[in-house]
Design the sequence.
């Protein structure tokens, strides 16, 4: 999700980096990716190595995947150019996503296949193959299984990529009213599916088995279920490009804290107890879009942002590797802290929170950061560059920025 240069930030604004002769990059969104990934890490700590007084808070990190989906739609739409064909787009996406995914699936598959009491090898290999082929999230019984459960989201992304060129051609010329209708419909669809899930499967504090929950899992984790989040990101990017007036980043952050606080206060409710029923992703999605848009607009205007600091940009660059490997590193730590458990036990029989888990969690964080830095430097980045040259996709050029539409700016 690296941002490309944007030229001419439009009239009536402070001079952007592009207008001063530099290449304006939305680096704040790169830094934001780190916080999304770290949130997912904390949500897995909440399951595998729970700490005292953090449940209900760390679990909110699961919505970091939703932030990724919105951010993905935004960045892809932002970087889209009508001069690039679908073939070049698919080549870039394959080069960006697949090489490290293959490595991230292979390593835990070998670990699981050789561990005592692990899953049946043929079944494990079948699920791992579905992850590498980016179809895992289409099979309800496999979505949350396999040696690397987090790969379900890559299946969703692959589906989004398949639809993106056609969707973008339609959205690029959409009016402000159509964009608003699309975003509103997408939010309504997210809530409609989640409320329907609660009616069909009354929430419980703990899901002791996924047996019988196949349709519910599909309604939460499948590509179709997550498509509205990607569409919201796309519509937001087009609106920002048109010069839509937005609140400041401070206002966007304050707005995001409202549902976060509400979800924290409701942490004792059944629908917050099990990830399958948790409303955090649908509740936070529109506020994620608002925050992304405000950050992008501030970057264009040349405003300061700690998200653009070198450490956070570097962490953002490592975030894809961190996301793929964090569960793989956390799981052995959790098994060491809770001997005798199997992977499924952590989900069906929750571990009692303990301060002794803190050392394991910190060690897992440090190791995952080290693995992520290594993979980005020696695997992800060089392989992506090599594949880009082979596919002939070349460098990406984003939309040229034109003066905002006055009719849109007044809204």
Sequence:
């Amino acid at each position: 999700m690296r941002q490309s240069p944007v030229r001419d930030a439009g009239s009536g604004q402070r001079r952007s980096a592009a207008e001063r002769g530099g290449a304006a990059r939305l680096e704040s969104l790169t830094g934001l990716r780190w916080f999304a990934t770290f949130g997912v890490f904390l949500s897995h700590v909440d399951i595998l190595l729970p700490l005292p007084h953090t449940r209900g808070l760390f679990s909110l990190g699961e919505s970091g995947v939703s932030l990724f989906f919105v951010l993905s739609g935004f960045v892809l739409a932002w970087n889209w150019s009508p001069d690039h064909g679908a073939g070049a787009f698919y080549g870039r996406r394959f080069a960006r996503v697949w090489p490290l995914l293959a490595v991230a699936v292979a390593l835990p598959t070998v670990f699981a296949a050789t561990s005592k009491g692990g899953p049946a090898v043929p079944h494990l290999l079948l699920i791992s193959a579905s992850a590498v082929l980016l179809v895992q999230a289409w099979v309800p019984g496999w979505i949350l299984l396999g040696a690397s459960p987090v790969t379900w989201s890559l299946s969703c992304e692959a589906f989004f990529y398949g639809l993106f060129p056609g969707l973008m051609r339609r959205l690029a010329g959409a009016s402000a009213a159509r964009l608003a209708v699309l975003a509103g419909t997408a939010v309504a669809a997210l809530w409609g599916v989640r409320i329907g899930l609660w009616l069909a499967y009354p929430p419980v504090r703990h899901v002791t088995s996924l047996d019988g929950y196949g349709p519910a899992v599909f309604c939460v984790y499948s590509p179709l279920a997550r498509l509205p989040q990607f569409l919201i990101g796309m519509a937001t990017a087009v609106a920002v490009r048109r010069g839509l007036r937005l609140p400041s980043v401070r206002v966007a952050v304050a707005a995001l804290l409202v549902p976060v606080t509400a979800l924290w206060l409701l942490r004792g409710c059944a629908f917050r107890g099990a990830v399958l029923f948790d409303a955090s992703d649908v509740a936070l999605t529109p506020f994620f879009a608002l925050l992304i848009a405000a950050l992008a607009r501030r970057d264009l205007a040349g405003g300061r942002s700690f998200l653009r600091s070198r450490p956070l940009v570097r962490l953002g660059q490592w975030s894809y590797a961190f996301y793929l490997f964090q569960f793989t590193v956390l799981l052995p730590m959790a098994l060491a802290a809770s001997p005798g458990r199997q992977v499924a036990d952590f989900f069906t029989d929750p571990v009692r929170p303990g301060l002794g888990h803190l050392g394991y969690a910190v060690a897992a964080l440090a190791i995952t950061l080290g693995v992520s830095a290594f993979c980005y430097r020696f695997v992800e980045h060089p392989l992506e560059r090599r594949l880009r040259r082979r596919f002939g996709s070349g460098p990406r050029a984003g939309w040229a920025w034109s003066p905002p539409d006055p009719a849109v700016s007044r809204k």
